[in-house]
């Protein structure tokens, strides 16, 4: 690596930057081949209705097992995929796989669940996005009501007219929309009543230590009152124990997701342990 200081006396690279730079280069090179090498897969995490105690949905979460690099977390490669534009083919693969899998499960006779798919900003802003979604639904035969798209607040905050038209086209066709990581962005709430949004997912940082954390209690309560007012349903994410579950349930939150209910798990395991036991699936603390 470049050890010498530049002639103006500033050190341009240090070994950390160098390391990050090469890591990114290698990641990008490997990610370009990940689809054709069949290195991507989806894990599914259950979402629980807090009134009935039943699983009503699942979030699809991408996993990358690179033959060169081993398991790379989506927290690392999704931002890179966005920077490089690779999110378009990768995101399309994820959407298609999630819809196809969900349709297969419905066809096998399991109780139909909604599958939530994370959509990154660059995907959403692509002019062909809404057509792609409708095309994938048609191609896979999944009824639109069993697809939910998770977008983040930063998407919701850009180019309002465009977001309104994309969201209304999709929701008119029956697709559900959730705002992910709600409360984490520093957005105004004004956009919420302009957009067709079905769910808000309360960011997991506000769920942590809930019964004991006064700031988080205040934040969660205010999110709940906004959602009630706008008639948007709430999903609490990152539920890790019974206390957190009970707390959000008592406050009036309709749905919950988190390790306490179930970890994200590969399709075959989800099928066996969640779908296959859906009537018996019980969580301590409800029903
Ligand atoms: P997210 O969409 O907010 O997903 C929730 C993350 O929280 C997941 O991490 C999940 O495994 C984790 N999680 C679930 N329950 C708990 C819990 O009880 N406690 C804690 N501490 N964490 C929990 P994961 O799978 O590593 O994904 C991280 C982020 O990467 C996602 O956040 C999402 O922004 C992005 N991502 C993951 N899959 C996809 C994808 O298919 N497409 C896109 N565009 N982004 C994705
Ligand atoms: Mg999500
Ligand atoms: Mg997210
Ligand atoms: Mg989230």
From TrEMBL:
Q: Where is the EAL domain?
A: 24-278
- Domain of life according to the entry: Bacteria
This protein is called what?
A: Signal peptide protein
**Source organism of the structure:** Pontibacillus marinus BH030004 = DSM 16465
Q: Which taxonomic lineage does the organism of this UniProt entry have?
A: Bacteria, Bacillati, Bacillota, Bacilli, Bacillales
């Amino acid at each position: 690596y470049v050890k010498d200081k530049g002639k103006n006396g500033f050190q341009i690279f240090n070994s950390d930057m160098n390391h990050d730079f090469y890591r990114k280069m290698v990641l990008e090179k490997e990610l370009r081949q990940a689809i054709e090498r069949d290195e991507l897969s989806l894990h599914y995490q259950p979402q629980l209705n807090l009134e009935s105690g039943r699983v009503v949905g699942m979030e699809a979460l991408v996993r990358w097992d690179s033959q060169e690099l081993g398991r790379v977390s989506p927290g690392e490669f999704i931002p890179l995929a966005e920077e490089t534009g690779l999110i378009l083919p990768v995101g399309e693969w994820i959407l298609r796989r999630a819809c196809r899998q969900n349709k297969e499960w419905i066809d096998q006779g399991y109780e139909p669940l909604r599958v939530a798919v994370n959509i990154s900003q660059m995907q959403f802003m692509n002019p062909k996005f809404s057509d792609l979604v409708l095309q994938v639904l048609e191609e896979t035969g999944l009824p639109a009501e069993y697809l939910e798209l998770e977008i983040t607040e930063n998407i919701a905050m850009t180019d309002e007219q465009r977001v309104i038209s994309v969201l209304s086209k999709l929701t008119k066709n029956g697709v559900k929309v959730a705002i992910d990581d709600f409360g984490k962005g520093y957005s105004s709430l004004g956009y919420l009543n302009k957009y067709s949004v079905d769910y808000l997912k309360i960011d997991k940082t506000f769920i942590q230590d809930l019964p004991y954390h006064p700031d988080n209690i205040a934040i969660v309560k205010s999110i709940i009152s906004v959602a009630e007012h706008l008639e948007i349903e709430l999903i609490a994410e990152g539920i890790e124990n019974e206390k957190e579950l009970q707390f959000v349930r008592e406050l009036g939150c309709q749905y919950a997701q988190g390790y306490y209910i179930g970890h994200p798990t590969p399709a075959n395991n989800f099928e066996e342990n969640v779908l296959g036991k859906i009537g018996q699936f019980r969580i301590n603390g409800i029903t």
